[in-house]
Amino acid sequence: MFEHISTQLLFGQVLLGLINGSFYAMLSMGLAIIFGLMNVVNFAHGAQYMLGAFVAWILLTTLGIPYWGALFVAPVIVAIFGMAMERLILRQLQNLDHLYGLLATYAMVLVIEGLIRQQYGSTGIPYQNPIPGGVNLGFMFLPYYRLWVVVFSLVTCVGTWLLIEHTKLGAYLRAANEKPQIVEAFGINVPRMMTLTYAFGVGLAALSGVLAAPIYQVSPSMGSNVIIVVFAVVVIGGMGSIAGAVVAGYALGVVEGLTKVFYPEAASVVIFLFMAAALFFRPSGIFSGKEST
Amino acid sequence: MKPAHLALILGFAAALAAPFYFYPVLLMTILCFVVFACSFNLLLGYTGLLCFGHAMFFGTAAYMTGLALKTTGISVELAIAFGALVAGLLGLLVGYLAIRRQGIQFAMITLAFSQLVFFFLLQSEFTGGEDGMQSIPRTPLFGLVNVDDSFNYYYVILALTILAVAAYYRIVNSPYGEVLKAVRDNQQRVESLGFSPERVKLVAFVLSATMAGMAGGMKATVYQFATLTDASWQVSGEVIIMTLLGGLGTLSGPLFGAGIIIWLNDELAGFGEWALILQGAILLAVIIFFRRGFVGELSALFRWVARKRRGDGGTPPPVQEGATATGPG
Predict the structure, then answer these.
(1) Is B4 on the interface with A (CB under 8 A)?
(2) Distance (Å) from the alpha carbon of B228 to chain A's nearest alpha carbon
(3) What does the alpha-carbon distance between residue B185 and residue A287 come to, in Å, rounded to a whole number?
(4) Cβ(B206)–Cβ(B92) below 8 Å
(5) Which residues contact B39 (CB under 8 A, 6 or more apart)?
(6) Do B105 and A272 touch (CB under 8 A)?
(7) What DSSP element (H or E) covers A134?
(8) B109, B190, B220, B302: which has the fewest C-beta neighbours closer than 10 Å?
(9) Which positions 234-263 of A are in contact with B (Cβ < 8 Å)?
(10) Coil, strand, or helix at residue B145?
(11) What number is the ipTM of this complex?
């Protein structure tokens, strides 16, 4: 039935799916960290991803800082902005129903996206590829930059997972969410840890944004387009489970890519359909993470 | 006569006189969103369910009402009812899956489903894709009364709004409404009393979806077109802002919330992105400082003033916390 599909197309789309999956994985990991440790669903995650790309572009055009510098500087700048958001807004809401955290971060999306759009317009801005060229693998052409994205995101995801699950710092973070009073009694500044956790998650989003800039165009709506898909990924992976978020991110990216080959009409909705199926068959999540209430 | 009755009569008189002084289309838009915000308040304010994709019902019904009017000759009120019915069925399907998860995940899941519906509408033939569904005819009311003129049609929309708000009032104040509030406040207790919280929530979800669909169908007949915007997450967010701004779990809150936001959108229409930026700022201010919303804060102020006059009690009542803030109104 599918003989007419060339290997070129098939592998090309799988690679594209792996690229999208890299961004889904990094973003849903950031969401899972912020949710798992702070009980905030960070709706602004997409906007912060978009800010990462914009800051990289602004650094390049105004200060001449190239991609490799922006990869480090832009996440730090956006993370500092995230710290301010946590201090000024999220801190006021931490004892309320979790829905308020979601709504407050949604409000931030409207403000951030609106201001960026007002300032820079709605059209996408191209960002130059820092590693042009590629290698011909025989069955397909592999651009170097895409290879870099997949490798870099894998390293970031595994590194973050190790940091949170297998270090003392990670143990403190998880304990601070479960029993803040006890952790404070050990002399640890829990509010500051929360601020840094949020900043770390925001920095991860911005890092993904810089990584995405040369592949997708830099545009104000790039964040809101992806965040809803990432929400579905997190629901499938199980809320608050970092490993679940990462695995589901890559897997669903590839599934989306394969759908583009075999049934292109459904490509934009296949992840949502997976979510519906997951809810139907596994109501508590495929990788059973922490259940929220 | 009680003050509440007087306010009701004055409000009704003002609604009857309004199109003589204001642009009828703007007034009708406000009324459509009043119905939409009521449907949303029924879920979040009274049941404690945050649906972040309510525009899927609004938008789907707008297209369905438009489709019915374009392809059949049925009268306008039946077409709106058809749109509401389809939205209710969609609500049954989505609600069946979404209520398996609670709280914050329910919000994320409904948002994802609304995006699924959005893409479906985008790719379907009958919706006209990016262009939207144009030139929807406004057939005579009951097959008899010509309502082509916006001034006349305003009174039809007003009647439908009163009908919807009355139904909303009836639901909230019925024994079933009490069960809804009980599910919101203490689900385990409700379960131990022999009710099925899932079932109560699903019924509320379907009722709310139907009412949101009615609002969408009304809007499609007012503007005589339906677009993808009606089903977008931005509109889902807008109805949340309206409801919170008006006052969560209040009866007249949706009226004020929808009125203020639609009026602001209209005033700021020529200023680029500032309408959205302001909406975000309003939502932030409401969440941080005025969680009871316009009606809730106002009635708290009145109660405080009244108590001051009587000379007992000095401080205003503390802000109720959580998504469960209730107020009269």
Answers:
(1) no
(2) 15
(3) 30
(4) yes
(5) B54, B57, B168, B207, B208, B209, B210, B211, B212, B214, B215
(6) no
(7) strand A134-136
(8) B302
(9) 234-235, 239
(10) strand
(11) 0.85
Gap from B115 CA to chain A (nearest CA, Å): 8
Nearest to A268 among B50, B119, B240 (CB): B119
Contact B104 A283 (CB under 8 A): no
Angle in degrees, CA B154, B156, B161, rounded to 5: 90
B105, B288, B323: residue with CB nearest A292: B105
Q: What is the DSSP letter of A92?
A: G
Closest CA to B31 of B214, B171, B179: B214
* Integer Rg of chain A from CA: 19
Pick the CATH number of B21-310 from 1.10.10, 2.50.20, 3.30.420, 1.10.3470: 1.10.3470
Nearest CA in chain B to A118: B273
pTM score of the predicted model: 0.87
pLDDT above 70 for B313 = no
Query: Using the beta-carbon criterion (under 8 Å), do B284 and A111 form an inter-chain contact?
Result: yes
Please give the average per-residue pLDDT across B185-213, as a whole number: 86
Q: B109 in contact with A at a CB cutoff of 8 Å?
A: yes
Helix (H, G, I), strand (E, B), or coil: what is residue B54? coil
B306 touches chain A (CB under 8 A): no
A88 with A22: CB under 8 angstroms?
A: no
Residue B141 DSSP code: B
A104: closest chain B residue by CA: B284
Give per-residue pLDDT as tens, A1-60: 455 667 777 888 888 889 999 999 999 999 988 888 888 889 999 999 999 999 999 999
User: Is the Cβ–Cβ distance between B259 and B216 less than 8 Å?
Assistant: no
Residue with tokens 């993808």: B228
Q: Which of B276, B319, B321 would you mutate first to test chain A, the one with the most A CBs within 10 A? A: B276
CB B185 within 8 A of CB B47: no
Largest CA distance in chain B: 67
pLDDT digits (tens, 9 = 90+) for A217-275: 899 989 888 998 898 888 888 777 888 889 989 989 999 888 888 887 788 888 888 88
Residue with tokens 């708000």: B165
Nearest to B104 among A107, A117, A292 (CB): A292
Eight-state DSSP code of residue A289: -
Pairing verdict, β A134-136 and A141-143: antiparallel
Alpha helices in B224-292 (DSSP H): 233-246, 253-267, 274-288
One-letter amino acid identity for B200? V
Rounded distance between C-alpha atoms, residue B58 and residue B210, angstroms: 9
At A219 the three-state DSSP class reads: coil
Q: Which of A98, A228, A268 sits opposite B104 (nearest CB)?
A: A98
The amino acid occupying position A206 is A
In terms of average pLDDT, the best of A70-79, A93-102, B37-46, B73-82 is A70-79
B137/B74 Cα distance (integer angstroms): 11
Domain limits of chain B?
A: 21-310
For residue A142, the SS3 value is strand
The kind and range of the H/E element at B102 are: none
